[in-house]
Design a protein that fits this description.
Radius of gyration: 21 Å
Bound molecules: adenosine-5'-diphosphate
Number of strands: 10
Order of helices and strands: EEEEHEEHHEEEEHHHHHHHH
Largest sheet: 6 strands, antiparallel
Low-confidence stretches: 1-24, 246-252, 254-264
Mean pLDDT: 87
Distance between the termini: 30 Å
Strand content: 15-25%
């Protein structure tokens, strides 16, 4: 397991004033046990904590009928800047416009005096990242199953002019039947004019495409999601991402960029130089290797379309299971 360790801070000069603590993030107060909107029409009871992201905390809640949901909570105190508000409104506008069996369903959005709340379909089985940690890697039939669902969701988003821009295993949730649900539209963008290209991304997408890093003049578009799909496929069958370096972990990225510019740039350099390899100690089919190499093409216009991807021999000449048993959370299923 390659784990990042934070860089040691430079030695302090004697007598220098103490540095402000870098990680002194204060935890906001918990939302109320009974969450209601201002009108009292909506009412949910908070029953558990699910996780925490960049600017939101996610709780499990129950509605008045007893149905379980996820509730994403953003404190109003974190929405003081215009930029923060614009980002949240964009996420809500985009996410609530999408309805697809493989996209986390967005239900309601409301506020009280302290927080903004979004209720979402509950994904009780964690993400593909959690599952990969337990399993270490997936079989190729499992990879086909998950990828077909992901590509279906992605095709739907693209036909609705939405680029997700942060497709990664941690944002691919699983429902109780092991179906993929794409979540977290915090970096998503809407393409409002045909041919429009995006020039900036606020945030740090995990599986970042080369044109985002190296072609800021031309911008990027839907093909960044195709790139991420290639990174995801590689990660599922190999067990680690193709461009990962030992010491880069999202939370330390900023610090590293500042202190060890060259090391933080190592994974970007590998992306630029299209430098990745397949392990040789076990069999990874030539079909999947060929497909991955086609997708991870540095020039975005040369990447295959989503249709071309599902028409590739990896999908058409190997078994695609009709479902994945829940036992697959911990051990490889036998599809034989
Ligand atoms: P990010 O970590 O990318 O900021 P979110 O803020 O959307 O992601 O979510 C934070 C965490 O909350 C996730 O990593 C996950 O553990 C949990 N979570 C988010 N959405 C759901 C959901 N619909 N069902 C179950 N758990 C969820």
């Amino acid at each position: 397991q390659q784990e990042a360790t934070p860089p040691k801070p430079p030695p302090k000069a004697p007598g220098s004033p103490p540095l402000p603590r870098q990680n002194s993030k204060t935890t906001p107060p918990s939302p109320p046990k009974i969450i209601t909107d201002k009108s009292g029409r909506l009412q949910f009871s908070r029953v558990g904590f699910l996780g925490e992201g960049g600017f939101a905390r996610v709780y499990e809640v129950q509605d008045v009928r007893g149905a379980r949901l996820a509730c994403k909570v953003v404190t109003k105190s974190s929405l003081k800047t215009k930029k923060a508000k614009t980002k949240l409104y964009a996420e809500i506008k985009i996410h609530r416009s999408l309805q697809h069996p493989n996209i986390v369903n967005f239900q309601e959005c409301f506020e009280d005096s302290d927080n903004v709340y979004m209720t979402l379909e509950l994904c009780p089985s964690g993400s593909l990242m959690d599952m990969l940690r337990r399993r270490r890697r997936f079989t190729e039939p499992e990879a086909r199953f998950f990828m077909v669902q992901l590509i279906g969701a992605c095709h739907y988003m693209h036909t609705h002019q939405v680029i997700h821009r942060d497709l990664k295993l941690g944002n691919l949730f699983l429902d109780a039947n092991m179906n993929v649900k794409v979540g977290d539209f915090g970096l998503a963008a809407l393409i409002e004019n045909p041919g429009e290209r995006k020039k900036t991304i606020c945030g740090t997408p995990n599986y970042i495409a080369p044109e985002v890093l190296f072609d800021t003049a031309n911008g990027h578009s839907f093909e960044v999601d195709t790139w991420s799909i290639g990174v995801i496929l590689y990660t599922l069958v190999v067990g680690r991402p193709p461009f990962q370096t030992k010491d880069v972990k999202a939370i330390y990225k900023q610090v590293l960029l500042y202190l060890y510019l060259d090391r933080a740039n190592e994974s970007s350099r590998r992306i630029r130089d299209n430098e990745y390899e397949f392990p040789t100690e076990r069999v990874i089919s030539s079909a999947v290797q060929h497909l991955i190499s086609q997708i991870l093409t540095p020039v975005p216009s040369q990447r295959p379309t989503l249709h071309e991807i599902v028409d590739h021999a990896f999908f058409t000449q190997g078994p695609v299971p009709s479902y994945i048993p829940t036992s697959a959370h911990d051990a490889a299923p036998d599809f034989g």
